[in-house]
Structures are given as C-alpha cells and as structure tokens.
Design a protein that fits this description.
Layout (H helix, E strand, L loop, with lengths): L1 H19 L3 H10 L3 E9 L15 E9 L4 E8 L13 E7 L2 E7 L5 E8 L5 E10 L6 E11 L2 E10 L3 E11 L2
Antiparallel strand pairs: 1-2, 1-10, 2-3, 3-4, 4-5, 5-6, 6-7, 7-8, 8-9, 9-10
Length: 183
C-alpha cells in the first residue's frame, strides 16, 4: 500500500511539472538545438573603416558545426575559417558549449585567447533571437575576451551569429556571420 501511495504521489508530481511547461531557459536551449548541423558563411566586422584594425577576418569564409550531445543536455558549437587544417596549434578553432543550469541557459566559450567567458542567454519574445550576455570569465584578459553573442533565426536553413569581442582596453569588436545550412 505504501508503494502504491508513493507511485501515485510521484505521478501527480510529474503531471504537475508538465502542467507548468518548460522553463524559459529550456525553451531557449531547445531553440538553439534546432541549429544542430553544419553551416557555412561569410564574416563581416564593424571595424571596416578603422585604419588601425586588423582586417584579416573581413570577408573570411567560415564553417560552423553544432551538435547536440550528452543525451540532449548540451550543445557543442565549433567554428573555424573554411579550408584551414584542423591544427589547433596554428589556427583559430574556438569551441563553445551551451547547456541549461537550473533556470539559466549558459554558454561557455573556450576561446583561442586562452580564457573561458560565460554568458547567460534568453530567447526573444518573438522566438527569432537568442541573446547571450556576459556573466563572468575564467582566465586572463591580456588578449581580450568574448563578451556578447546573438543568434538570429531566419529560417530552418539560415541564421546569423553576432559575436562581440572585447579587445584589450575594452574596445568592442563585432563580427557577424551570415550562415547557410550545408545539405
């Protein structure tokens, strides 16, 4: 009899949890998981007219892969310039992990600058963007750090990513990737 009451109680708790729906963090994460796949596109920056800026990224072809892992509990985002070898000692190849932690969607960016900024994300009310704001950072900021990211959903096969990098001296540099799904 005791196990029957426990079973009924657990069933009621499960039903009640379903009645309240998903948390905003889980909704945001589910939106991000819809991007799983391979993407290609071009990078543009807001530094085009700055003569002192490094323009090496402007117009670069980029490849992005995103995959859901850990039984659906995290997503891996990897990016690199198209055509570059998979040699982390010579070429940039940052990896970003996204996951739900309690009531927050978190992003940890394992940066080529040698640090790990964390950001917290939320889906917009219209469901068209997920925006990540800086929370904290592990590692140094000698070479700068990633500070902000916005993923905009255009359709099932197109999205944009805007990443803001804080350069030394807290000067922001924004890069935008216009991406199309590779079929």
């Amino acid at each position: 009899m005791k196990s029957l009451r426990m079973g009924i109680l657990l069933g009621m708790v499960a039903l009640a949890a379903g009645a309240f729906g998903q948390s905003d963090a889980q909704k945001s994460f589910d939106k991000m998981k819809s991007l799983a796949g391979t993407w290609q596109g071009t990078v543009s920056t807001d530094m085009k007219n700055d003569p002192a800026a490094d323009h090496s990224m402007e117009g670069t072809q980029v490849g992005v892969t995103m995959r859901v892992t850990s039984r659906g509990n995290s997503m891996v985002h990897e990016m690199k310039a198209a055509g570059t070898p998979d040699d982390p000692a010579k070429y940039d190849h940052p990896v970003t992990m996204m996951y739900v932690d309690a009531d927050r969607l978190l992003l940890t960016h394992y940066c080529d600058a040698g640090n790990r900024p964390r950001m917290s994300g939320k889906v917009s009310p219209d469901g068209k963007t997920v925006e990540f704001d800086f929370v904290d950072l592990s590692g140094g900021t000698e070479y700068g750090h990633m500070h902000h990211a916005v993923f905009t959903f255009i359709d099932a096969d197109h999205h944009t990513e805007e990443w803001t990098y804080m350069m030394p001296g807290d000067k922001p540099m924004r890069a935008k990737m216009e991406l199309a799904r590779v079929k």
